Amino acid sequence: MWRTIDAHLRTVRLPVRTVLLSHHQYPPSLPPLKPPNSLHFFSLSETLTISSSTPYPPSPILAFTTRCINSVAFGRGRNLVPVRCISSISSSAAPNQQHTAVGWNEPVTCSELGDGGKGTNIEEDARQSIPVRAFLFSTSVDLKSLVEQNKKNFIPPTSRMTNYVVLKFGNLSQAPGLGSCISGSNCCYMVVFQYGSIVLFNVREHEVDEYLNLVRKHASGLLPETRKDEYEVREKPTLNTWMQGGLDYIMLQFLNTDGIRMIGSVLGQSIALDYYGRQVDGMVAEFTDINRGMEKTGTFSMDSKKLFQIVGKANSNLADVILKLGLFERSDIAWKDAKYAQIWEYLRDEFELTQRFASLDFKLKFVEHNIRFLQEILQNRKSDFLEWLIIVLISVEIIISVFDLVQRSGFKFL
């Protein structure tokens, strides 16, 4: 890296324009610089005597201070120490002055060091990252009883949506308002939905079970396995735009409770939609096996009771997706503020909620078509049975009538 001496040095016409320190070649009077063994800042001061055969002022002295961010600057064959100076030379210096002092007092920032600043940027990104985890282990949660036992953690709603609650843990006196940051704090949030989804913000991995157990006491319709999904929110107050999307994360200028509600609602719908999608996939697989059996044998052995159970399951799944999840209901927060509408639309597109519901609806139509087909077959079977029963009864009645007629006529059988 090259650093040029500023305009003040040009006025005194020094023969040296650039100072470059490297372990390959050093100035005659400057001892070699040794790289630090730690990643801490270091500072050193040296005196450089510039000799020249030109008629310029003899041997001016440059007093400078160099700073390096970490030892990365000395690795990978890039053993250069960048320095920058702010000159303190006066243009009125006497021509016969033997020494001129130049103060090198402007530090080099991390971003100017190239590779040397990557470690710091990674640490900053990690500090500003908010982990988001979504869970689903039941199909229903009693929100009223949950709020009753966690009144001090309950955050009052700001919209008319009543199918979820937001609970805050940690520093309860600090409310995330406009421009405040959640990342790096001990505050964590839990969004619980009536249809069973739970979304945790800024909760450490080893603390997840503790928060899930708070909801498990008020849950019903427990599932055999817990479903999980992960996402990430990054806060960057210096972001030029309100939000910016990335791979498995969204970057915001700041995250407040409205943003938590908006992000939590989409993640809660996503993981619940995944559960209902798998339920429908199971029904599709079951009908596929029936159709393959019919292809081989020409008949099927399903009774009407099991078929009716599948009909009820398919209808309830579709009703839950439309009514409980509110998949097509736009949040009041998104209606009121275009910023949150942007988050809502971006996340719905990111998690492909519309496409996944279209796929779910297509599978349900396939199930419905098979149900209707099998119902017709069962109905035909029942009709055939009733027809044969009627034929048998009529035949029996005819036989009885003939026998009675014969008895009355006095006809005797041999």
TrEMBL record:
InterPro entries: DUF155, RMD1/Sad1-interacting. Keywords: Membrane, Transmembrane, Transmembrane helix. The keyword Transmembrane applies. One of its GO terms (cellular component) is mitochondrion. It comes from the Eukaryota. Pfam families: DUF155. Residues 190-360 form the DUF155 domain. The chain crosses the membrane at residues 385-406. PANTHER family: PROTEIN RETARDED ROOT GROWTH-LIKE, REQUIRED FOR MEIOTIC NUCLEAR DIVISION PROTEIN 1 HOMOLOG. Belongs to the RMD1/sif2 family. This is DUF155 domain-containing protein. It comes from Populus trichocarpa (Western balsam poplar).
